[in-house]
Design goal:
homotetramer, 322 residues, alpha/beta, Glucose Oxidase, domain 1, nine-stranded mixed sheet, two-stranded antiparallel ribbon, 9 helices, 23% helix, Cyclase (chains A, B, C, D)
Chain lengths: 322, 322, 322, 322
């Protein structure tokens, strides 16, 4: 809460900047179209089943410069318009608790990591649509106060695959996409051409909107009100390409939502219909620079979620290796 | 606390199994011998400065089978003799807090992660010896209730390097090393020969004692009382080889400590003298199996600590890619 | 977990020490007999509605010596057989965070307070029997991840009433009741006679078994396995007297439970049937001494739960004023 | 953070509304004047030593109507301009963790309670001035990561004494004092006359500024920037009267601070010089109504802090009994 909020962005009028309004019926048709249920075992590893050892080998072979770039944001203990549940960080030993020698310094960390502030992975149990988790599992039977029994983060394990950076501000020659700007299938196709990369089977697609730079230069705002992200009309393209993971420097969904009555339609399509985990709230600024310097928008990506039994996701600090 | 503790191991008599006993004066001479202060910039990245882009490239080139093996233990919310500060995991939304659709399931996690239960990375600020952190920085001036201003985990960033597994039970043909069994320089040299691998500059050395298997089969015990780990006389060899990271399925130190008046002498040598971060409490059981199957004890290792400003380390779930 | 557990008590054979075994059918008859639903407004203040301003005045008039005795146990951050989810206590400022002057010292506290370690009040939402909360409210509709919408602790507010100490070890001339010892209606009647006190309408009844003294002298044990407490056959007497609150230096229930298939039958009777909140895990040692010195077993009792919206109870530190 | 902040109050110009500016030298003279060191045993019970059994008896005798009024604010889990570290509240059992019957609902609470949002008691270890705690104890030696070894909250125990409400808006016939308005000795004397009450030895003095009503009607603001509270020139009067406790519906200090270089001068005077604990962030609205109805501004006050070893204070929910 220290520091004032930035100038609140004015979201574009519905039906313009963030693209065509979508009815619930149209959405449900889209959901049915991209649905990939009953396809993999184990089911709750979802689209990560697409990442075969062969994909792992090929992604490792992408390493050229040997530059490793972290994609996580700092642990944020300060409340703000984009951080209503600030993370905790307390020192539990300053060398005065456990007897020396050596003196030890220890700390406690805590966080309600979903939301807009913490870089995290959404496991498949994070979202349900019409009462169902991915693969048609009834949410009520799968998730309770003890956590998720289907689609929990340990089912995913680590991910080692090819990452592709869709650096839209770089394509457009601007600092960032304004909050509320929707990314459509056409934008993806243009970015592929401009950046010289083609999204393929098993890839992790990372959308840079430049939101981290905007926050740094113009101040924080409430991304629940307005944020750049994917329009649902971009999802069929991603489904056709057979991606394994979708990520962004926001939470992937454009806001305001273009879909009537749905606050996070891309979450519903990716997590529930397609079985594609999401990476939310990345910091892609350093990767953008590194990619521009080398002209390479595909790279080895490694994501190592914590093994939290029953967890609906995990804070992560993914690394891209160019 | 549910579930009884396993049969408490009987630590070997001092000077035998975990022997030779080491005086404080001998330890200080050892400390001076392996000390690597004033060597790198940034200083608080310590021995990770040894991992150059060339190392990264070569480690990526080690990938053969494309098998990715996670090395983290599950988040442990149950108190026990090896877990006096159990981790927290609470559901903060069961689809009944944030309005649908989609329904969202969220959770809070918290942990005082140092200790013997959580797989974590020790940053260089974790330990001080004789009032000094690595590089001779005065601990009192560098660490306070706000965290560490030198040697905090963000200074490390992600690590991508060659990992080497010292699978001592595999060498010895036993299930595990008994708690209290010290690993000496000679054990390391024997393991290198038996496993066909040589520790080199910039490597991450991972010691498997089989403690996770022992815990599973014989029950939990207090590793602060007895655990297999490195004797201080093994450290000069590791220092000569120029390692970047040291890890174990315990906390690296043999206990009881062979050094008079020091509870964690390997921590002091690695973190404070050498600037070598530590990985504590790994689960190396699956990696042991995978390495045995392929006969390959060197592999790509990726460690991605959370970016916690001021943090003295981070829970992690490292991944080995064979 | 530091410090060994005390010698585990041997629970008495079922049907002997902890009294007659009770079938589920007998229990349900008992439940119906003491049920007090549809009686008060607001309903979720339950039996605290019995405490009228007249009761408050009369309880204040009980003060004679002016001795105030705290009844709470210390915040327990150490795991143990009776404390599987230890409380958290971290310093958040040691005078080095917020700028001086004055320097400020601050701390974070956290606790999952139900259980056997923390002195706390159970609000009426804490327990459900056969799917119902007190007053017949369906638990599923009243309690979710956001907390309780009926029977939450703010509905109770503070309690100022007459407290009555049933000091059974004092009556029996022993240090404590052995874990597993059941307290029956006859024990209550005997204690009233011996201590010169009669339980009346609106009273808070506090049972001392001496468990805190036993823990101090003989070490901690798991009270979920064996603890002294009320047998269900004592409850009708308490119901007839019209008590407002029931408390104990355990969690009120004798364990092992005498009722087939019910782990906490007194909880079900008090909270669900009678609308009587519970005080669990008191420390009644100092009060026992003060009552013996003055010969007065009735006194002013004040309980001030925290106002936690949706909370199912609260840590408290009740005070008796003699 | 949900919900906008209220219109930020404009603090009065220094030297006008919040009273005469005070130099550091003048403050130090004031500190020396009200200092009460070396006076009591145990020292860290401070001015609560003034509350003798006789005071307790007389305060209990004040009860007339038998109305009990809680003075705590609700546990606040929402970040806002007055709540940068929101409290935590998570359900740890929704009847689906511990086996029924009965089903049990449990919750975890956590809070960094000092600040402007939580009703809490400051123990004497909370503040240090010029490196010293109350009684001249060196803060560095008394407070570390394990908590306070002098002046911790268990040293206080429960407080049962006479409370006096200084209802300044009632005296002035307004809804609230504007943030930044200082309360001087003359204001206290006027209030005593108008309300028919005289502050005496061992009393708990509670200042109502109406801030809770202002927050409800005009929205939240940052009380660190502007709040109504005591000017330091009111403190000698309170010291002369021999009060035991000082409380307010803010944090007692007027802000901006009238003292050069001191952010919380009343904290320094009360806690450090006088040994008087503080109650911060009370809700005195209901008490104001009850006092006006009965015309009685003195009453029985009971404060029961949690027994947190090493704690610098405690969340509380004090109760006034009229």
């Amino acid at each position: 809460m220290t520091g004032g909020a930035g100038a609140a962005p004015t979201p574009p009028p519905a039906g313009t900047g963030n693209g065509p309004a979508v009815s619930r019926r149209e959405f449900d048709a889209l959901f049915a179209r991209v649905r990939a249920w009953g396809r993999w075992a184990p089911a709750d590893r979802g689209a990560w089943n697409r990442v075969t050892p062969e994909h792992v080998r090929r992604s490792a072979a992408l390493v050229r410069s040997g530059t490793a770039v972290a994609l996580g944001r700092p642990w944020n203990t300060a409340a703000g318009p984009d951080n209503p549940t600030p993370a905790l960080h307390y020192m539990s030993d300053l060398g005065d608790i456990e007897p020396p020698e050596p003196a030890t310094h220890k700390d406690f960390i805590g966080v309600d990591y979903h939301g807009k502030a913490v870089t995290h992975l959404d496991a498949l149990s994070h979202a349900a649509y019409r009462g169902q988790l991915y693969d048609g599992r009834p949410a009520r039977e799968c998730v309770d106060a003890g956590g998720a029994r289907f689609g929990a983060v340990p089912a995913l394990g680590p991910l080692v695959t090819r990452g592709v950076l869709l650096d839209l501000p770089a394509v457009a020659g601007c600092g960032w996409l304004e909050p509320g700007r929707a990314v459509h299938a056409g934008d993806i196709a243009s970015a592929e051409r401009a950046l010289g990369v083609t999204i393929g089977e098993g890839d992790a697609v990372l959308l840079r909107s430049g939101s981290v730079r905007r926050r740094r230069e113009a101040g924080a705002w409430d991304p629940g009100t307005a944020s750049a992200g994917f329009h649902v009309d971009a999802v069929p393209l991603l489904a056709e390409r057979g991606i394994a993971l979708l990520g962004a420097d926001g939470d992937n969904d454009v806001r305001p939502s273009p879909v009537d009555g749905l606050h996070s339609p891309v979450h519903a399509l990716a997590l529930v219909a397609m079985g594609v985990p999401l990476l939310d709230n990345l910091d892609l600024e350093a990767l953008s620079v590194a990619a521009a310097e080398t002209g390479r928008y595909a790279f080895l990506l490694v994501v190592t979620p914590l093994d939290i039994p029953g967890g609906t996701g995990s804070p992560v600090n993914p690394v891209a290796v160019l």
